[in-house]
Amino acid sequence: LFFAVVFLPEGNGAIFGIIIMMFAMMVVTTISCDDLAKWDAYALTMPVTRKEMVLSKYLVMVLLNTLGAVLSLIIGIVGSFLMNLSFDLEILVIVGLVYLIAFIFGSLIIPLIYKFGTEKARLMLFLCALIPTALFLLLEQFNVPLPTTGNPWIYLFLLIVFAVVGVVLSYLISLKIYTKKEF
User: Fold this and answer.
1) DSSP letters spanning 52-91
2) What sign has the CA pseudo-torsion 57, 61, 67, 68?
3) Contact by Cβ (8 Å): 155, 95
4) Closest CA to 155 of 141, 135, 131, 171
5) 3-state DSSP assignment of residue 50
6) What is the pLDDT of residues 120-165, one digit of tens each?
7) How far is CA 179 from the centre of its chain?
């Protein structure tokens, strides 16, 4: 709410990305709390498989990312109404793109957490931001046309495919790491 009050009157769309990424980072917090409580060792004594344990974190990621996107849209709609502005397509584009980026972020961080633990993985969060930035700069260096009004659908399609493939690969990698882990 604080960020919405600060950013919306200025017409800054960054608030939508901030909200979604704040929710996306909560997956790290849930795994950290599980580690502190020694939840995995306890849960695996019950009729829960390792596959279900890993799948649960990905379902939490989907839930939190979706909740962040819905909250962003609500804030966008309410903010537009309160400031007597029309709800425009730009808000939907920002929310949609950051929503997909949040999945890519989760796809990168969850396997890192399973491999190195939450504390070391928090340091590796920097890499999760550095990799997309480096890819963006690399595309710029090779003069690959960036999204414009002429070709945004191609990039949106590629981002959706990249996010879906990333989540599936990430799940498989996380499952392999988690299966070998001893508690």
Assistant:
1) HHHHHHHHHHHHHHHHHHHHHHHHHHHHHHHTT----HHH
2) positive
3) no
4) 135
5) helix
6) 887 887 776 777 778 878 887 888 776 565 666 777 788 899 999 9
7) 24
- Quote the tokens at residue 37: 């409580």
Identify which of 59, 179, 63 has the alpha carbon closest to the alpha carbon of residue 114: 179
Q: What does the alpha-carbon distance between residue 58 and residue 168 come to, in Å, rounded to a whole number?
A: 10
Of 83, 90, 73, 33, the C-alpha closest to 57 is 33
Half-sphere exposure of 68 (CA within 13 A, CB side): 29
Whether pTM exceeds 0.85? no
- Least Cα distance to 94 among 67, 73, 119 occurs for 73
